[in-house]
Amino acid sequence: EKGTYPHYMLKEIDEQPLVMRKIIQAYQDIDGRLSIYSQIIDAVTQADRLYIIACGTSYHAGLVGKQLIEKLAKIPVEVHVSSEFVYNMPLLSEKPLFIFISQSGETADSRAVLVKVKEMGYKALTITNVPGSTLSREADYTLLLHAGPEIAVASTKAYTAQIAVLAILADVAAKSRGYSEDFNLVHELGLVANAMEVLCGSKEEVEQMAYDYLTVTRNCFFIGRSLDYFVCLEGALKLKEISYIQAEGFAGGELKHGTIALIEEGTPVVALATQKDVNWSIRGNVKEVIARGANPCIISMKGLNEEGDRFIIPKVHELLTPLISVIPLQLLAYYAALHRGCDVDKPRNLAKSVTVE
Ligand code: F6R
Known about the structure:
Layout: H1 8-14, H2 16-26, H3 38-46, E1 49-54, H4 56-73, E2 77-81, H5 82-85, E3 96-102, H6 108-119, E4 124-128, H7 134-138, E5 141-144, H8 157-176, H9 185-200, H10 203-214, E6 219-224, H11 227-243, E7 246-251, E8 268-273, H12 276-291, E9 295-301, E10 311-313, H13 322-339
Helix pairs in contact: 2-8, 2-9, 3-8, 4-8, 4-11, 8-13, 9-13, 10-13, 11-13
């Protein structure tokens, strides 16, 4: 039930701090340490390469998951779109493990890959929100998202839940491989939940941003570097699917290789700046688009913020920023769709579970 909320999407955006806390609890052992069923950790740590397979928003969570697993557990990861992987499989490593990410657990494109890799004799892990779903039943192992039912077509809380579960998987695998950095994930995810709460309390500010940048525009660009780039892909997908504004996410450095040609007087360009190493270079990209007349909307993390930034998100661990930087982008899409009179929860041409290939 959506209760007092006008839309499921807004309710589900607001549930994200609670979902973070549920996930932390669900993956803690009695001593408060993060823990995952040892058979799953063995399968992950014995693989020489992980193949993450997913579609849409779940694919975007997989891109972030790759960074987390490679940085923390130091296991190589590839991320593939299901519908491409099935017909154009890359050369596989000797001991691959397949990880399917699917909110619904019913996505036909992903299932087609699962059936194929099982036929080839490989093991598979499904990360899903729905226990007993097809992808969960047909894989060897399952990790649950604990996000509660997601009703709105546009995925929000499942995306952040997927990243949190991937972070936990990366952390537990890292510890099991003997890489225990100075990183207390339970504590860091707690800070993320608090930061999410702050952001969910900034709706009026984001609504005003949607009004200022997106009321009349035909298109919108999202630019970021490193982890911010992946969040930009997700921010653009959210905006196009519910507001029908043509939106694209780009790596900041790729702009000058073509896309910058599309920047006109007043084109909205949302830039994410949450990564210290690339803060200088993304701000250079912002200057490039301003010089072509763009209307920039900089969303930065506290500590990296500069004068003129439009929105500042609280500081969290640098590897976990996607969990919070996505929230203003989800809200931006929500309010843009609302202002433009679109059906937020049931956008045209889309279904919640895509059960055809
Ligand atoms: C976007 C969205 C879709 C799904 C995609 C995969 O908001 O909802 O892009 O993410 O269809 O769905 P699942 O995760 O159920 O496999």
